[in-house]
Amino acid sequence: MPSPAENPENVKKTQDTESAEPTVADTSADSADSADSAECRAAGSELVRFDKVTKRFGDVTVLDQLDFRVETGKHVTLIGPSGSGKTTILRLLMTLLTPEEGTIKVDGQYLTHEERDGKLVKPGERHVREVRKKIGMVFQHFNLFPNMRVLRNVMEAPVHVLGLSKDEAEERAKELVELVGLTEHLDKYPSQLSGGQQQRVAIARALAMRPQVLLLDEVTSALDPELVAGVLDVLRDIALSTDITMLVVTHEMSFARDISDAVLMFDKGKIIESGSPEKIFSEPEHDRTKEFLSTVL
Amino acid sequence: MNWDWEIVNDFMPSFWDGVLVTLQALVLGSLIAFGLGLVWAMAQRAPFAWVRWPVTALTEFVRNTPLLVQLFFLYYVVPEWGPSMSALTTGIIGLGLHYSTYTAEVYRAGIDGVPVGQWEAATALSLPRVRTWVAVILPQAIRRVVPALGNYVIAMLKDSPMIAVIGAMEMLGEAENFSNTTFTTEAYTIVGIAFLVIAYPASLLIRVLERRLALTS
């Protein structure tokens, strides 16, 4: 497993193996706001990096040679019509899907491939597990464990994956459940909570692993309209008060505008436009973006 | 038809012996069926074909041949090159093995019924494979299948007289033995009632369990 110290070398090797691919500097991130992307670089390294990633389902190409990166600490929102590949990106990152072509790196480490004796090979389960710990995900349908109470839902992974003691994990879980405003529900089962409450537990559960990047996959789409605001408020707080990196797929455009450092517009498996939320929402350049925004705003 | 309480009274000692054998076969046979069935079901989801294939072959073979033939095979053929076991032990293993191939299907359905989102959440939290099974998947799967498993316990009870053919004298075996030597029929009636007395509360218990387990899911 490459240690962080070896990262620069890895980057170089990708470029070697992937040959003439345009390099780090000149894709999505810098396309629009120089101020914003300069700040990205100052803030630190890239945390997520897709290089020429292609994903197909049967004959359908969902992602087509996608290059894409997210800088540490940034909140990036993916927008676009359904079927445009936004959710697929999150699922690839979470290793729920594997790409047909291309490489994905998280924090400088290969997620889809592993470097062994200078060659890129399929990674071992242990390698994937290590890299995956840096990533947390909140799902559209919450996916809480229905057989566990709220507290245990949040404690389970810290105890059995991170090896925290029961006491440490419980303390951490209680803090997070308080953060999402559900302290009085610690001993309830998910089925006793509303959808919005369940989703807030799911957010606490993901954060309990202290991931470097949080993936939010249409987290309010399955909620009754009156419950959406509570979940978004919690996420807004987290976005503004922590330095966690976020990758967000949402149809809540005002939320996207509030929290995003950058918005990427997807269509047919490609990024067709990117930039600051102000730019994308106020003065989109691409016709597809204008058309899409007119349907959701 | 004459009913002679004297004869019933004479049958009682061997009847209780038979009840004991029936209950042992049922309880131990069920434990084997529950345990082995789970092993088969999980093996059939193993990532390796060399685990899945033999298990599928074995369970299909056992499910598609008669229990009676399996009992004869275990009792008369296996000892020729393997361990020789008492009739009761053989009967318990035979019942347990036979029914494990049915409980495996029940577990399989239960496991398939756990929403894919649960596996995804476990992956997203990096839960190790064993922990995912033990803490997430099985508790949900088993909760769903308890009623179906219970039905197989009752089916097994009703198949238990078959172990008498290899000499494990359960209730019906004892009744037949008694009736043949005394030229009476009362023992059969007693045993028939005894099966009902065991089976009916068992099915009530299953229904109670079903309701209690449904609560939190």
UniProtKB/TrEMBL annotation, chain B:
Asked whether the UniProt record includes Membrane among its keywords, one would answer: yes
Cite the ABC transmembrane type-1 domain residue spans from the record. 15-206
Q: Where in the cell is it found?
A: Cell membrane
Superkingdom, taxonomy of origin: Bacteria
Q: Which ranges of the sequence are coiled-coil? A: none
Q: How does it sit in the membrane?
A: Multi-pass membrane protein
Any Gene Ontology biological process: amino acid transport
Is Nucleotide-binding one of the keywords? no
Keyword terms: Amino-acid transport, Cell membrane, Membrane, Transmembrane, Transmembrane helix, Transport
Q: Transmembrane region positions?
A: 20-41, 187-209
Q: Matching InterPro entries, A to Z?
A: AA_ABC_transptr_permease_3TM (IPR010065), ArtM/GltK/GlnP/TcyL/YhdX-like (IPR043429), Ectoine_EhuD (IPR014341), MetI-like (IPR000515), MetI-like_sf (IPR035906)
Please give the GO cellular component terms listed in this UniProt entry: ATP-binding cassette (ABC) transporter complex
Name the major location: membrane
Task: Please list the GO terms describing molecular function.
Answer: transmembrane transporter activity
Q: Hey, what's the signal peptide range on this chain?
A: none
PROSITE patterns registered for this protein in UniProt: ABC_TM1
What PANTHER family does UniProt report for this protein, alphabetically? L-CYSTINE TRANSPORT SYSTEM PERMEASE PROTEIN TCYL, MEMBRANE COMPONENT OF AMINO ACID ABC TRANSPORTER
Question: What does the similarity note say?
Answer: Belongs to the binding-protein-dependent transport system permease family.
Note the NCBIfam families from the entry.
Answer: ectoine_ehuD (TIGR03003), HEQRo_perm_3TM (TIGR01726)
Return the protein name: Ectoine/hydroxyectoine ABC transporter permease subunit EhuD
